[in-house]
Design a protein that fits this description.
The structure holds two protein chains of two kinds. Chain A is built from 16 helices and four strands. By secondary structure, chain A is mostly helical. The chains are: A mainly alpha, B mainly alpha.
Chain lengths: ~325, ~290
């Protein structure tokens, strides 16, 4: 990292840490939603943007993470929240590995449909297995406070405290995901997205590599789901259902699937837009759908794509020179 | 546990809903075979058909007119979508086509809520088709038999058109290799447009005849969508015969699932779909893996 990049990152971190003193409670709650949905969207994009695998069932491990955290806190007395979140991540990894084992052999539409089938299956299980999940009433999640050495107690009932907790978890998760994309394995995934037959011919283990990516994405989605469940203090079958699984697709496409943080930006824009539209008009889902269709038609590289080399913004500012640079 | 006539009635219920499902699935599977697009908005076309039937009956009082109005309007909508939207983004790849049709499906669903409201709307059964007749040892609703008859006629019509006419040969060849058919001098984009339009119109017909049976409901699109996915996967992508068999299987599975395991009827069909995708990813009658 260059000195300038380091400076920018530190400044961004300072701004993020200071947000609870700037925002009112309602906006702070939105910021918390942005954090976990942002992580969820980035984890989705490890599959879609990096590995070229469009999943319609990414909600599966989001919900599994939520349920695992909820059940762990319910049945183990005195379990600290970070441990519960870790258990949620572990559950996501296990379920992700099982689902991935079956899915990563398929491509394109087949992959999208099989992931959807698994998430719908889990949805039906969560809905019907009332004795464990309490069906569509949802499972109430009792979230304990977190005691930090030297810093005192984080009261999870207070939005500001929960925000700091979520920020820490999300930043650690994002950093892990970022490191993962920079490993040789992460690079091999890009090769497989472009041409997995050639990758196999060069001696790469395509199925194994994709399975690892799928499991990592599932684990991160479960962390996001765990935060979601602890923040809402409730986890219900809708967390596994198609609307959540497709919202995350929209967020990623909106932000731009070509960049690492694009989906995070997309999640932020989506949540703020949804909040604003739903207060302005009753027809907000229609407008969001229209926006989505227009994005796919005219700006399928997303918001970050507009500013990327060769993107519309640079072309408008610098003319053809930037376009040529983008092509080179 | 149950009397024999219960099984017979339940089996017939399964055939009826299976045939209805096939009417919707046939257009979807042909489009997938030709263009490689799984058109999620197709389920929205079916729902639009039901709502247009409601409006036609409401305005004119004539159910039969809606069998003309709905397919024409929805077919035109399908043609516009194929020509002006899907064709533009073909170059971005299948993932974006899938995303586009998903966005359209979402818009149709919300548009329906906007125009017709969120409550289910009852479409009355046309006079002459109400009531029940004795059949298989119990009373059977006439309207269900009507659904069965209409679907069987359309199904036979499709078979004749595809197997016995020149355009049918062109479509079947385009399903197996669109590029080669184009190279032989046939205007494949036009054929795609035609198949897409016809498929959309067929979905609307299914929506119309389903309307008195299931009510026009803003969630009916999402409900049939999951069934359609299962049918397309089990039958094999692009195979009409596969879609027919899979539709009947799902119809029976739902019919008897509700009888025996009402709690887990939904789980079964996804298990079946997952099983087929794992063991035979190309489906029962699909060709390519």
């Amino acid at each position: 990292m260059s000195l300038r990049a380091r400076g920018l990152a530190l400044a961004a971190l300072a701004v993020l840490l200071a947000l609870p003193w700037v925002l009112d409670t309602i906006r702070l709650r939105l910021a918390i939603e942005v954090l976990y949905f942002g992580l969820f969207a980035v984890s989705f994009n490890l599959l879609f943007g990096y590995a070229g695998l469009l999943s319609f069932g990414h909600a599966a491990t989001f919900g599994v993470g939520g349920y695992a955290v909820g059940l762990a806190l319910k049945h183990v007395d005195g379990l600290p929240l970070p441990v519960a979140l870790g258990l949620g991540a572990l559950a996501g990894a296990v379920v992700g590995a099982v689902i991935g084992f079956f899915c990563v052999r398929l491509r394109g539409t087949y992959f999208a449909l099989l992931t959807l089938a698994f998430s719908q299956f889990l949805y039906a299980v969560a809905l019907k297995w009332r004795s464990v999940t309490r069906g569509d009433d949802g499972l109430t999640v009792a979230v304990p406070d977190v005691t930090l050495p030297a810093l005192g107690v984080l009261r999870t009932g207070q939005p500001a405290h929960f925000y700091w907790l979520a920020l820490a978890v999300v930043l650690i998760s994002l950093w892990t995901a970022w490191r993962f994309t920079r490993t040789p394995l992460g690079n091999a995934v890009l090769l497989m997205r472009e041409n997995d037959e050639r990758a196999a011919f060069l001696g790469y283990n395509v199925v194994g590599t994709k399975l690892i990516v799928f499991t990592v994405a599932a684990t991160l989605a479960a962390v996001a789901g765990g935060l979601f469940a602890s923040f809402q203090r409730l986890i219900s079958p809708t967390s596994l259902d198609l609307p959540i699984g497709t919202e995350v697709v929209f967020m990623a496409v909106l932000g731009g699937t070509q960049s690492f943080l694009g989906p995070f930006l997309g999640a932020a824009v989506y949540i703020l837009l949804q909040d604003w539209l739903s207060r302005t008009t009753e027809r907000w889902p229609f407008l969001l759908g229209l926006l989505f269709v227009l994005m796919v038609l005219y700006a399928h590289t997303g918001i970050t794509g507009l500013f990327a080399p060769g993107g519309v913004v640079r072309r408008l500012r610098y003319g053809r020179r930037a376009e040529a640079e983008g092509a080179s | 546990m149950f009397a024999l006539s219960v099984y017979a009635t339940q089996a017939l219920h399964g055939v009826v809903s299976g045939m209805l499902l096939f009417l919707v699935a046939s257009g979807l599977t042909l489009v997938f075979g030709m263009m490689g697009i799984l058109n999620i908005a197709h389920a929205g076309f079916y729902m639009l058909g039901a709502y247009l039937a409601y409006t036609t009956v409401h305005v004119t009082g004539d159910f039969w007119l809606s069998l003309l109005v709905a397919p024409i309007l929805v077919g035109a909508l399908g043609a516009l979508i194929e020509r002006w939207l899907l064709r533009r983004i073909h170059a971005f790849g299948h993932a974006y086509e899938l995303l586009l049709t998903f966005g359209l499906f979402f818009m149709i669903g919300e548009g329906v809520r906007w125009i017709w409201g969120s409550n289910p709307l009852q479409v009355p059964i046309p006079s002459g088709l109400t009531g029940s007749i004795p059949l298989l040892g119990s009373q059977y609703p006439v309207y269900r038999l009507f659904i069965l008859g209409v679907s069987a006629v359309i199904c036979a019509g499709l078979a004749v058109a595809l197997l016995r006419t020149r355009i049918g040969i062109v479509i079947r060849s385009a399903v197996s290799d669109a590029e080669m058919v184009g190279a032989l001098g046939i205007n494949t984009p036009l054929v795609s447009l035609g198949v897409f339009t016809a498929g959309s119109a067929l979905a609307a017909v299914a929506g119309v005849i389903a309307a008195p049976f299931v009510q026009a409901d803003p969630s009916m699109g999402a409900v049939i969508l999951t069934d359609l996915f299962v049918v397309i996967v089990i039958g094999g992508f692009g195979s009409l015969l596969g879609a027919l068999l899979a539709s009947l299987m799902i119809g029976e599975l739902q019919s008897f699932g509700i009888l025996w395991f009402p709690e887990f009827a939904l789980v079964f069909q996804f298990l079946l779909m997952a099983l087929v995708l794992i063991v035979r990813p190309q489906g029962l009658f699909g060709e390519k893996g």
